[in-house]
């Protein structure tokens, strides 16, 4: 089957026909924009798209995760540099236990991107050579890019509860977070000390810095009005008469060094 030339993007419906011929029952749905396959068939479909002479998807542009609340889709943007074509492949997995086969053995560029999706969305990639968090530390409660991040199951509270790796003895999680009396992140202190130069800044900005500032109105003496530091070396200016005398002496020496005009003759 030769794909019709419809510009740079290959319709998902055309790709679905080609995939279904090679792997029956692997396609879940297809549209003009993309084709979605079952997660368990992803690895073999990915290899097929890369090695197929007509599709030639040897370049992985990017991977992204999509949270639909009841399931996850992992979208792969693939390109053929030789044929100047692009297509979008998606793999669907459950929301309760999201696992998708790694395609790092198909496209090496997937290694870091799969780690990023695992870190921020909690989708695991089976067969990944080094699956671990890339932005957050191991043990961080939750995955910030999930739509249910602020309503974690079990009453967990997202956010920093301890410094990284400071878990209870023999544990790799925060079991006490589900308890109301569990540890909480410390509140951020406000600046209540003096804020030098605040008054001048408020005059320049029309008082915007004063809104909710809660700081002092003490000001700092401008640099040109400050006395020099006591420990700074003191350089005394030369006396005017002494400076004038030294200037005349230099001029006299310069004249005496000039050869006489008669002597040159």
Describe the protein in words.
- With 265 residues, this protein is α/β, with parallel strands linked by helices.
- The protein has a domain of 146 residues: Beta Polymerase, domain 2 (2-Layer Sandwich), CATH 3.30.460.
- Helices cover 23% and strands 16% of the residues.
- The protein contains six helices and seven strands, in the order H-E-E-H-E-E-E-E-H-E-H-H-H.
- The strands form two sheets. Strands 1-2-5-4-3 form a five-stranded mixed sheet, with helices on one face. A two-stranded parallel ribbon has the order 6-7.
- The longest helix has 17 residues.
Summarize the entry for a quick read.
This protein is α/β, with parallel strands linked by helices. The chain is built from six helices and seven strands.
Descriptive tags:
single chain, 265 residues, alpha/beta, Beta Polymerase, domain 2, 5-stranded mixed sheet, two-stranded parallel ribbon, 23% helix
Bin the helical content: 10-25%
Second CATH tier, the architecture of the domain at 12-157: 2-Layer Sandwich
Mean pLDDT: 75
Major sheet characteristics: 5 strands, mixed
What is the C-alpha radius of gyration, as a whole number of Å?
A: 36 Å
* Portion in strands: 15-25%
Order of helices and strands: HEEHEEEEHEHHH
Number of helices: 6
């Amino acid at each position: 089957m030769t794909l019709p030339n419809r510009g740079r993007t290959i319709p998902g419906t055309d790709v679905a026909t080609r995939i279904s011929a090679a792997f029956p029952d692997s396609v879940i749905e297809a549209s003009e924009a993309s084709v979605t396959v079952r997660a368990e068939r992803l690895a073999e479909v990915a290899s097929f798209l890369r090695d197929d002479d007509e599709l030639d998807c040897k370049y992985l542009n990017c991977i992204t995760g999509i949270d639909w609340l009841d399931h996850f889709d992992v979208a792969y943007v693939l390109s053929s540099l030789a044929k100047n074509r692009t297509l979008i492949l998606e793999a669907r997995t459950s929301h309760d236990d999201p696992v998708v086969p790694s395609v790092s053995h198909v496209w090496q560029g997937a290694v870091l991107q799969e780690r990023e999706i695992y870190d921020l969305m909690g989708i695991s990639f089976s067969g990944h050579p080094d699956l671990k968090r890339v932005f957050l530390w191991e043990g961080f409660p939750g995955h910030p890019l999930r739509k249910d991040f602020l309503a974690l199951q079990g009453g967990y509270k997202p956010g920093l509860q301890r410094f990284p790796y400071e878990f209870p003895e023999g544990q790799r999680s925060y079991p006490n977070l589900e308890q109301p009396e569990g540890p909480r992140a410390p509140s951020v202190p406000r600046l209540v000390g003096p804020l030098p130069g605040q008054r001048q800044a408020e005059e320049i900005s029309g008082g915007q810095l004063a809104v909710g500032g809660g700081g002092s109105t003490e000001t700092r003496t401008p640099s040109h009005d400050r006395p020099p530091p006591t420990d700074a070396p003191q350089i005394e200016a030369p006396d005017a008469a002494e400076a004038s005398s030294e200037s005349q002496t230099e001029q006299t020496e310069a004249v005496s060094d000039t050869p006489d005009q008669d002597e040159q003759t």
